[in-house]
Each structure stands twice: as structure tokens, then as C-alpha cells.
Specification:
alpha/beta
């Protein structure tokens, strides 16, 4: 029987810890990386994730950062944090090569 391919939200930490298992189940992940994890996400881990799913013919989507962010905020600190988080997300996307964010 063919595997049924599904897409589901998977936090980055769980994805790192259970990568082989998730790939073997045929899951197309919507990767969620919170702000702190975005800052610490290592390029080699992101590339390994992209390669594992790509080799299995699975697609990655990336859940963009949103919590506490507002690019149109009148508060400068909020705007600057938003830009910082978006930049980290775009760097992660360059390695993960998601279908979309």
C-alpha cells in the first residue's frame, strides 16, 4: 500500500529530534521555528532537513514568525524586532527551500 502523504505543523525542535521518523512516515512538514530557535538555527541542520525531505520527494513549508510582531507598529522596538525575525526567517528559508512561507 502506498503511503498517504499529509502536511502537518511540526515544531522545529521536534523535527530535529525525530527527522528520520517523520520523513519515513511521508509527512510534508509545515515547520514552525519560534524567535529564539530562529536565532540559533544552524545552517547545517536546516540543510540536512531540506535534503532529507527533498530526497524523499516531500515538500516543506515554513510557518513564518508572527508572535508579538507588527511591521506597521508605531513602536520602533516592535518594528525592529519584526525586521530581525523576518530576516532570520528568510535565512532559514534559504536553507530549507520551502515551497512557501
Amino acid at each position: 500500500m502506498d503511503k498517504v502523504k499529509v502536511q502537518t505543523h511540526i515544531p522545529y525542535r521536534i523535527l530535529l529530534d525525530r527527522l528520520a521518523e517523520i520523513v519515513s512516515m511521508g509527512i510534508n512538514p509545515e515547520v514552525y521555528i519560534d524567535g529564539a530557535e530562529l536565532e540559533g538555527a544552524r545552517g547545517k541542520d536546516l540543510v540536512a532537513i531540506a535534503n532529507a525531505f527533498g530526497s524523499a520527494g516531500l515538500l516543506i513549508t515554513l510557518h513564518g514568525p508572527y508572535d508579538g510582531l507588527n511591521p506597521g507598529s508605531p513602536d520602533e522596538d516592535t518594528r525592529l524586532l519584526t525586521v530581525k525575525r523576518y530576516r532570520h526567517a528568510f535565512r532559514a528559508a534559504a536553507s530549507l527551500k520551502p515551497k512557501n512561507i
